Amino acid sequence: xxxxxxxxxxxxxxxxxxxxxxxxxDAEQELGQRMLFDVEMVPDQVSATETDDxxxxxxxxxxxxxxxxxxxxxxxxTLERLVTVIADGLLERFPVVEVRVRATKxxxxxxxxxxxxxxxxxxxxxx
Length: 127
Hints:
The protein is an alpha+beta fold. 30% of the residues lie in helices and 31% in strands. It has helices spanning 26-30, 48-51, 60-73, 79-93, and strands at 11-20, 33-43, 96-105, 117-124. It starts with 10 loop residues before the first strand and ends with a strand.
């Protein structure tokens, strides 16, 4: 993620933990599970590097509120669809030119031990 016009500013939200109801199995859809989200955004313009004004950047509190609503409002079977909806929504609602969204199930319903199962998507605004 690189965008020279913004001074290469990347805003990152790491490990946003939410209880969601996404998954292929009925149990995942009904009972839900803990999911972790990571978001990286390249703002369109970042005057806050010079002005220290919140209006000159992306309000990550508002981004987190959007993320929580999008991740818990509708149930999806696949993480691929979930991260696509979130990434596209971020591009539509916030002054960003690039986003990367990762959703991780720390305890996926598989018969093997692992640190988690993730899906990540990268999107950018068309010029």
